[in-house]
Description:
By secondary structure, the protein is an alpha/beta fold. The longest helix has 17 residues, at 335-351. Strand 1 (5-9), helix 1 (17-29) and strand 2 form a beta-alpha-beta unit. It is built from 13 helices and twelve strands. Helix 2 packs across helix 3. The mean pLDDT is 89. 40% of the residues lie in helices and 16% in strands.
Amino acid sequence: MTKRYLVFISEAARTCGVEEFSRLLAGRLGVRAQTHVLDYRIWRLFGALKNVDAAVLNFPVVAWKKKLLSPTLCALVARFMRRDVVVVLHEWLALDWKRRIVLAPALVLASRILFSAPEIAAEFAETRLSSFVTRRRGMVPIPPNLLPPSELRQTPHSEALREQRRNGRLILGQFGSIYPKKQSTAVLQVAAELIAQGHDVGIVFAGSFIKGMDNVEEQFFDLARKCGVADRLLVTGYIADESTLFAIFEQIDVFCYLFPEGLTSRRGSVLAAALFGKPVVVNAPASAKALDHHDLFRRLIETHAIRMVPTNADIPTVASAVLQAAEDKPNKLDLVAGLETVWRQIVLAVDAA
């Protein structure tokens, strides 16, 4: 029997990776899925659930303070109507404890829980809540939330970067939200190290600062000044248009990430950059099996699009890897085939619920 799904989304205009996954999943399921905005209109919810077999919730949710009870309400109504509830959990211990409390009842109501990475599954398994939820659990590979468009749209940002490269400057970049737990500032230190070695380096962050975190932006630019790279730094802010975003990607020589936990399969920003054909230098996963379930990540490592340094690599080691990556172009990857493989795995995992 072909399963039909109600995929819950938010009304957010500025989407995060979790929200993008929700919308992309609904699109990939095609006629088997419809979307429903997470809200409190219960009679509309009853009507939407009437013609489906299962509800799909992705956590954490956007604007969670406005949605305090809606995930639980949706899961409760779905189970009352004898519909399955599939929860895809993208984060857990990294979430504020108040957010975990809000999501806990919906997890208890879940028929099946899918995790975005082995690290998240392990974190969850060690919590007390794990004893009270379903043992029907699985893993899904998270696809890139952005793909290169057919045409690029040049802007003053991309033109300025192009001019810098024309004058011999190496552009070091990072894509995605800027926040402390991502160690975004490590890129500033890598750039400073390269400059100290005599290289001309510029830095671009294609993204914006996470709102609600006190002094993050101020501390970021303060460190840039201390590192002596403030006059070489560009922070674009949030860019919604993909043709504009990838025009900036085109002018980046090497992407660089140094995550606290090393690379994990949830890092869609790394996938997006590597799939565009740009080399990405990133520190290796803490666990050797962290990427075993994600064929596309493993293929990108094989083709040298993703170049890993040790998990606890110091700044000089990362700087050296950046220079090497700037000289060696990655091998080409069959993007269509790689994405089809990932989505086939995802749909199979959801259907297994």
